[in-house]
Batch of 2 targets.
Target 1
Amino acid sequence: MSPVIRNILAVILGWVGGSAVNMGLIELGYMIFPIQGVDPNDMDSLIAAMPTMEPKHFLFPFLAHAIGTLVGAFLAVWIAATHKMKFGFAIGILFLLGGIAAIYMFPGPTWFAVLDLLVAYLPMAYLGGKLAMRIG
């Protein structure tokens, strides 16, 4: 397979795989820590409930962002033919941009925004990339 095609697939599969993990963990979080009177599929309902949420309600969003990025970067680095870590960081940057957008759409506590932006994206992309490099 052409290195260019393989690198394109690395980004696509890293993004899709990481996003699937992200959404799965978000859904699991809603099942484990339901928010009374909130429809998790209704953005306005979630935004209105933000001030009443406890720290436990932010655990799974953080895990979803961090593990989704880690898995996405891992897949991108594992699949890429060349410049492997660059593709892992590209996934990290894509997810970071999504995280920034989410913070603007869902104005949660400042501590969560800082933790999420500083820990869940680029450090996890680095870790996922390094793990993939070790495996193969």
Target 2
Amino acid sequence: MKKILYTTIGLPISLLTLIACSGNSGEGNIKDTENGQNISAVTAMEDNKANSESQNTQSGNSMAETMTETMTETMTETDGNTGATFPAESGTDGISDNGNGSSSHYKKTTTFNGIITTPPRSHSTITLTMGGAIENICVFPGDMVKKGQTIATLKNPEFIQLQQEFLTATAQVEYLEKEYNRQQNLASHEAASQKKLQQSKAEFLSEKSRLDAAKAQLTLLNVDTENLKEKGLKTYLEIKAPISGYVTDLQANLGQYFDAGQPICDIINKSEALLQLTAYEKDLAYISVGNKVTFTVNGLENKTFHAEIIAIDQMVNSENRSINVYAKVKSTDKLFRQGMYVSAKIDGNM
């Protein structure tokens, strides 16, 4: 009995507790087993739920990425000419379906600044072919003149001398021509020597060349030589308008001396008007001849005017990298002035 008590006392408390409960081991073991199975089942269900949620999250992310890529592809468009990709816009400025699955060109409206100008044939600068002093000025800046109307008169002794040479050569040619014809007649009847005939011919042709030279110079000065032969010398050289239009940039006053080649004034015909617009290299892809232009003029903002591009300059300005674009105005306005600032919109296709 003492030995058993010693042994029992030496055992750990946990083991004693297990031994004490061993009497109920049959029913207790069954319940513990059932509880363990239930815990294992709950744990397995939770693991399956976590795996399912992870798979759903991955699937959702994959679907979101696919939808994003699809939307990105749908909302962008690639330029067939340049290969550039840009966002599509709705309305008239975007991509429209033609009904057969294809899309129309992307329409781009660009704004440009520029000025009003005139075609080269409608703008004339009056320069002097012969130098001289201004004797009279017949017009004022802004006046309307007709082609051939006198702008001013010029005095120069050389002009009088040139007229004299022309009239003298005219008389001499008339005499020498008759003499030459007479010598030809005599030579045909062997009544005159060939030497005299040749001398008469040389004198006639020499004087005729002097006449032609004087006539050409007077023609450049807008002098009617036939009228000069009938009415005689003119004291002053008349400077006449080469085209019809408005006088502008008049730089002359009475008594002022001008050298040959110096400008006196300009004449502008306003029946035709052009726009000179400033574009840049990046704009060339959207601009072409025939594009429609709408524009407003500085000071006339309440009115909108229309034009059409007729030419694009082929040279780039080396200083500011700009390019001149010219558009013909469809209907001019009496208030238009050369050099007025304009703001224009060009409808171009990408």
